[in-house]
UniProtKB/TrEMBL annotation:
Gene3D superfamilies: 3.40.50.980, Chloramphenicol acetyltransferase-like domain, Nonribosomal peptide synthetase, condensation domain. It comes from Mycobacterium avium subsp. hominissuis. InterPro entries: AMP-binding_CS, AMP-dep_synth/lig_dom, CAT-like_dom_sf, Condensation_dom. Residues 3-216 form the Condensation domain. One of its GO terms (cellular component) is cytosol. One of its GO terms (biological process) is secondary metabolite biosynthetic process. Residues 239-553 form the AMP-dependent synthetase/ligase domain. Pfam families: AMP-binding, Condensation. GO terms for molecular function: catalytic activity; phosphopantetheine binding. This is Non-ribosomal peptide synthetase.
Amino acid sequence: RVHNATSFMVVQAGLAVLLAKLSASCDVAVGFPIAGRGDPALDDLVGFFVNTLVLRVDLSGDPTVGEILARVRQRSLAAYEHQDVPFEILVERLQPTRNLAHHPLIQVMLAWQNLPWQHDGPVAGLELGDVRVTPLPVDTQVARMDLVWSLAERWTEKGRPAGIAGAVEFRTDVFDADTIRTLIERLRRVLAAMTADAGQRLSSIDLLDAAEHERLDAWGNRAVLDLPSLAQVSIPALFAAQVARAPGAVAISCGERSFTYRELYESTNRLAHLLSDHGAGPGQRVAVVIPRSAEAVVAILAVLKTGAAYVPIDPGVPAARLQFVLADSAPVAAVTTAEVRDRLDGFELPVIDVDDPALAGQPSTGLPLPAADSIAYLIYTSGTTGVPKGVAVSHRNVTQLLQSIDGLGQVWSQCHSLAFDFSVWEIFGALLHGGRLVIVPDDIVRSPEDLHALLVREQVSVLSQTPSAFYALQSADALAPELGQQLKLQTVVFGGEALQPHRLATWLHHHPGLPRMINMYGITETTVHASFREIVDADVDSSVSPIGVPLANLA
């Protein structure tokens, strides 16, 4: 009454708030039927004159409940003034994009009845002289829209309000019954909040109850999010610690070539000094244009040791993308190999060969360690939605991510392009935990059978794969079961695309217990991975890709 709003307007506003919060939209349209008997000449005429009106509610600016009611009231009264305009004419004039999958303009309807005979007992039935009228529900078994709320005010025998009752009709290919029950409860909660305090803002209306908040805390892995993080250090600092711990351990294997941690440390120091002589340092960028190889890892670590950020560029990219990335990132130098050096012809920047003979004269001692908050790398997105953008990630972000890894000295595979941030996880997951990094050549990556054999031969314990690549590997494993039993895999990490758990049934059958199958989710901006979920046998009954809970210390 204070806001001159009817019960219908309050329910309209509540439904608009619910839809806005669920859809993260501030522009909500809801349809509602109206009797269409505004002309007194129709009072004594029997017939169906119902029309559909569209109420479009603007919820921008985080309005208060009172302001929302005022907007709904204004729009409702304006709609009533034009209630005789047929809905079909409205659609014809507005010409919305048509889709056979849903109704034009609106997909949600609110049907409101305020006559007491509609939903109450016989005592409240409508009487026409000696004729008694009661409603006869007609179940068409077909949903008219995605969602139809048919609500009515209830009344006592004495004509006093007794709440709201009704039913919700829904498309079963869009919603299920449990979801609808949840929506009903949330609408009730919204209406209770709105009537309790008309001064509160839209953003403060909570759709969730205490039990749902507790469930979110459990799903959100809040316990690990609150754990204190380890000391913030740079990638070279953690690598140096592994060198000191086990200098003679093998750090990289690539075909017949290998580096111990000491050899890798000294090689990267020499290249870092040479890069510094060409301007590499804090705040600068250095392009790394090298195929996946041991030399590529040397180049990356060397760039990081100068304090600069590395910009990985796959040598096989089209010339236009190569030109764009170099122009946009503005590196002070580029590191490459003789094999692909010609890709950099015509660019005005120093080009350093990772095997340059001048490296022999450079000192093998380390440079000052970079700050943890300095940029470690700049990786460019695919550009499928427009112009590629460079995503800058700090040392701290990488080292925090890798705190989630347990287990030292494992054997990691490196199967992905350096320009794909999955490679960051592979390279530093191994080298910052004293592991051995097995660099897989391109021809083997493309052959599931050869990759299967390499995993056995190198005794790889941690394999990171996109799901589609793993499905192919799974097929190769099924064709060579005896070889598959020799695998030493402890963990398989999925990333880069949605996982289909039901497609893992064959692998889980042949390899029960181990390896652990971990589905990880994240985007380049969140530093490779942000959440994880271990796949269990029960998951094979689902086609949904479970992304699990946040990794520790990444909130």
